[in-house]
Amino acid sequence: LAKTTQPISMDSYEGQEVNITCSHNNIATNDYITWYQQFPSQGPRFIIQGYKTKVTNEVASLFIPADRKSSTLSLPRVSLSDTAVYYCLVGDNPSGTYKYIFGTGTRLKVLA
Amino acid sequence: AAGVIQSPRHLIKEKRETATLKCYPIPRHDTVYWYQQGPGQDPQFLISFYEKMQSDKGSIPDRFSAQQFSDYHSELNMSSLELGDSALYFCASSLGGRAGEQYFGPGTRLTVT
Q1: Cα angle, residue A97 at apex, residues A89 and B19 outer, rounded to 5°
Q2: What is the DSSP letter of A27?
Q3: Pairwise CA distance, residues A66 & A81, whole Å
């Protein structure tokens, strides 16, 4: 089963832009890439979803290259309240069995 | 806006007991997913249902079973509980199967003693 990998942790300062990348070499052909934010003991909170190229909403942008083997979540002007763990979620299809795979998670710490 | 509802929020069971977790999806959502998240770990996909039929199956132990009912709510049944089953169990729902954006509930914290 292919691993979906992310940097373990990142530090940033308030007001900066943060980019978090997820590597998903075995993403299923027709699957979307979704990013979530999770605070301790809470359910993952939907941030953004995309299939290819670039998607932007009111809180983030998602960049997906043509080969779709990675994706980058961009958070503009982070604040202290953005301190959380960020996960990518993709579909994987090993041996014809479709599964949803969370990335290894990136712990973002925003400093004042 | 209405969110995914999970009950109970907390559950304490002893080894070898059974537990049933319930999930009520966002209204009009037809797909339900179950995930398990152990302490300090990533969420692990267990199973999903689309239009009341099992859709995909992940790392769900044989001791666990689940179903989706006619009103689209879902239940995860866990038997012969083990200490290692202690975790947060999340339910998510979406519209339209695999392509839908999954929205997660607050989770059920299961503690097995």
Answers
A1: 75
A2: B
A3: 32
End-to-end Cα, chain B, rounded Å = 37
| Cα maximum dimension of chain A | 47
Q: What pLDDT, in 10s, does the model give residues B51-87?
A: 999 999 999 999 999 999 999 999 999 999 999 999 9
Helices then strands, counting H and E runs in chain A, come out as 0, 10
SS3 content of chain A, % helix, strand, coil (to 5): 5, 50, 45
B19, amino acid identity: A
| B58 neighbourhood in chain A, CB within 8 Å | 99-100
**Confidence at residue A2, expressed as pLDDT on a 0 to 100 scale:** 54
The minimal CB distance from B42 to the residues A31, A34, A105 is found for A105
- pLDDT tens for each residue of A22-47: 999 888 778 899 999 999 999 999 99
